[in-house]
Write a structure and sequence with these properties.
21% of the residues are buried. The protein has one domain (3-132). It has 149 residues and is mainly alpha-helical. It is elongated. It has helices spanning 3-41, 46-80, 85-106, 109-131.
């Protein structure tokens, strides 16, 4: 591979790291929101627990992929600064091998997210059956201040 291909490969890795970061933040925030929902409504079903667990697993996968992505970037950068070409080539090839493994794990994250979403839908359906269909009425008080005369 020439230097231009190395540059584009490492830049592509940086974009993958951003996708992984978004995956991590999305899954961790959804699992935290589900825990807060279950705590406030005191309506815990098995589907909610499985959904929270699925999103938590996806967040853990995202965190480990994020660390691995930064490690790959480090190895790719070190390959350019290696003392000789053989060492640089070995560093680059090992980084590419890690990147292929990381990509396989990354492809599993959306599946875990879809599984968590399916459990979430089932949990809300069970909650609706248990509590009965109720309309939610939102009221907003637009008054700024009242005089107490």
């Amino acid at each position: 591979m020439n230097d231009k291909a190395h540059f584009h490969w490492s830049e592509g890795n940086k974009f993958a790291i951003e996708i992984i970061r978004a995956n991590f933040f999305l899954n961790s925030s959804v699992s935290a929101a589900l825990i807060a929902f279950m705590a406030t409504t005191k309506s815990v079903t098995l589907a909610f627990i499985l959904s929270t667990l699925s999103f938590f697993i996806a967040a853990i996968l995202g965190a480990s992929l994020l660390m691995m992505g930064y490690y790959i970037n480090l190895r790719q950068g070190n390959s350019a600064n290696a003392a000789d070409q053989t060492t640089g080539k070995q560093l680059w090839e090992s980084a590419n091998g890690l990147q292929m493994k990381m990509t396989r794990v990354l492809y599993q994250c959306p599946g875990v997210m879809v599984l968590g979403s399916c459990f979430l839908v089932v949990g809300f359906y069970q909650l609706n059956l248990r509590n009965g269909p109720k309309a939610i009425h939102w009221t907003i008080d637009l008054s700024v201040g009242h005089s107490t005369n």
